[in-house]
Amino acid sequence: MAFTNEQLERYSRHILLKEVGAKGQKKLLNGKVLIIGAGGLGAPIALYLAAAGVGAIGIADLDTVDLSNLQRQVIHTTADIGKAKVQSAKETMQAINPDVQVNTYQIYVNAASIMDLIQDYDFIIDGTDNFAAKFLINDACVLQKKPFSHAGILRFGGQLMTYVPGEGPCYRCVFREPPPPDAIPTCRQAGVVGAMGGVIGSLQAMEAIKFLIGKGDLLTGKLLTYDALTMEFRRIKLPGRKDCAVCGEHPSITEPFDYEVPACDLKAEGESHENSPEL
Amino acid sequence: MTIIVAGDKKEYAEGTTLAALIEKENIDSPQYVTVSLNDDFVESGAFADTVLKDGDNIEFLYFMGGGA
After folding, report:
1. Domain range for residue B19?
2. Distance from C-alpha of B48 to C-alpha of B19, rounded to nearest angstrom
3. How many domains does chain A have?
4. Residue A4 domain-assigned?
5. Which of A39, A63, A113, A236 is the most buried (most CB within 10 A)?
6. What are the strands, taking DSSP E only, across chain A?
């Protein structure tokens, strides 16, 4: 595949980088990344991956755009209110870069749908807003040996880690089981600074790009935490867990399953909800 | 003894347990916090019996479930 003149110009700042170059840009153009959740994290991820020329980008979310989303979900505009998030995201991504194929999945991502959904992708990104979805994505990716990026954001904080099969612990190694309903506040309950999705989502996009071009060190075996109030990033080394229920030596989880989504995460009346309970 | 708590060097009395450390450090909802000590996770049931020693490196890993 030769670059067109337009591609050479569009991707010139990538091609200039020795770690990317023409070869890396071709890897990006041939790359397939799935973003689960077109919200606070998913928005910047989708924007940057589309701009970078990642060839096929899947985006899954059941919801429609709500006014309360626009404080942080920068891929959607006021004119998109009421529109399916995946459609709104696709339109913005293709307006940025028509090179990119955007696959939309306006579906309930659950144990029944996730295995088929992730199958065709090289790298999966968790941009969901609830623990049931985060554990589901982890389990499905471990079972299908798919690399993925986990992230969570809340108030002025965020964290992320990357799982690559055989190269470090999974999300379940660290956190075992979802916390009981209401034990840990959600963004819906506790709030989040919109730019937090930009910081952490951009870091997730960076992990996907590094994975696709095969350069640099990923956050495997490490949890990167960010506190915006103290402006401190910390990269915490994560131990493995030999008895992990899904990636351990004798796994008890051999197929994905759904945790119940806490009632407080359910869609409030008259208010659209980002990913729960569908993701 | 000097131990490293979430990246910071701190002085604690010999014999301090992980449970005592968690209390002193005001860790919120410790039952939902994953604790790593050096290169291993410590189960919450073992906090009271885990006696810290000089040079130990303790990290607290918090659930963060938001994203949308």
Report:
1. 2-62
2. 5
3. 1
4. no
5. A39
6. 32-36, 56-60, 101-105, 123-126, 148-154, 157-163, 222-227, 232-237
Which pLDDT score, from 0 to 100, does residue A272 have? 44
Asked, for residue A158, whether it belongs to a domain, the answer is yes
Cβ neighbours for B27, distance < 8 A, ≥ 6 positions apart: B33, B60
CATH number at B32 reads 3.10.20.30
Rounded to the nearest angstrom, the minimum Cα separation between A214 and chain B is 26
Is residue B27 included in any domain, yes or no?
Answer: yes
Bridge partners for B35 per DSSP: B42, B60
- Which chain B residues touch A238 with a CB distance below 8 Å? 36, 61
Q: How many domains does chain B have?
A: 1
The Cα B28–Cα B43 span in angstroms is: 16
Q: Are the C-beta atoms of A189 and A154 separated by less than 8 Å?
A: no
Span A213-251, pLDDT tens digits: 999 999 999 999 999 999 999 999 999 999 999 999 999
* Angstroms from B11 CA to nearest CA on chain A: 21
- CATH code of A159's domain: 3.40.50.720
Phi, psi of B66 (to 5 degrees): -80, 170
In this prediction, residues A173-184 reach a mean pLDDT of 91
Residue A217: the pLDDT is 98
| Cross-chain CB nearest to A153 (options B7, B62, B64) | B64
Residue at A49 is within a domain: yes
Contact between A184 and B29 using a beta-carbon 8 Å cutoff: yes
Residue A219, domain extent = 14-265
Helix (H) or strand (E) holding A189: helix A187-190
**pLDDT of the residue at A263:** 54
Chain B's closest residue to A175, CA to CA, is B34
pTM of the entire predicted model: 0.94
CA pair distance A41, A44, nearest whole angstrom: 6
User: Which is nearest to A225 in space by CA: A131, A158, A150?
Assistant: A158
User: Which residues have CB under 8 Å from A259's CB, separation 6+?
Assistant: A131, A132, A135, A136, A178
Among B34, B63, B67, select the one facing A41 at the smallest CB separation.
Answer: B67
The predicted structure's pLDDT at residue A261: 77
